[in-house]
Write a structure and sequence with these properties.
Number of strands: 10
Order of helices and strands: EEEEEEEEEE
Shape: elongated
Structural class: mainly beta
Oligomer: single chain
Strand content: over 45%
Helix content: under 10%
Distance between the termini: 26 Å
Mean pLDDT: 85
Number of domains: 1
Low-confidence stretches: none
CATH architecture: Sandwich
Number of helices: 0
């Protein structure tokens, strides 16, 4: 699990999870990025999830991603495809918020690789 890293100019930050995968006992959710406080300024973030080849392509076995701010879900998706680069999404994040990005797991694809990268621009 990754946390926030400031870029040298101080006006941006980034975080990445690296490649994460579960095993047969993987839970329904797997934390990928947790940032305890996004900083003293509001920010605009771009989030890019990615997935490896699925084990099962049957309906209902797509991995997904959930974003929480201060333990409140603000974004949740499990798309109809499960591998390759997924389109990024962008969010406004108010200052000093806890930001979490979580992988939504399925029992048939719990060993499928997944990850996420994030870049935040202070406003």
């Amino acid at each position: 699990m990754s946390s926030q890293i400031l870029l040298s100019g101080g006006d941006k930050y980034y975080s990445y999870s690296g490649i994460i995968f579960g095993d047969v006992s993987a839970p329904a959710t797997i934390p990928m990025i947790t940032i305890d406080s996004t900083g003293l300024k509001d920010s605009y973030v771009k989030i890019q999830p990615f997935y490896g080849n699925p084990i099962s392509t049957s309906v209902g076995n797509q991995l997904g991603v959930e974003v929480k701010l201060n333990d409140v879900v603000i974004y949740n998706t499990q798309a109809n495809y499960s591998y390759g680069d997924r389109d990024h999404f962008e969010l406004f994040i108010p200052r000093q918020n806890k930001l979490e990005i979580i992988s939504l797991n399925t029992s048939n694809n719990n060993t499928q690789t997944r990850g996420v990268s994030l870049i935040g621009y202070y406003l």
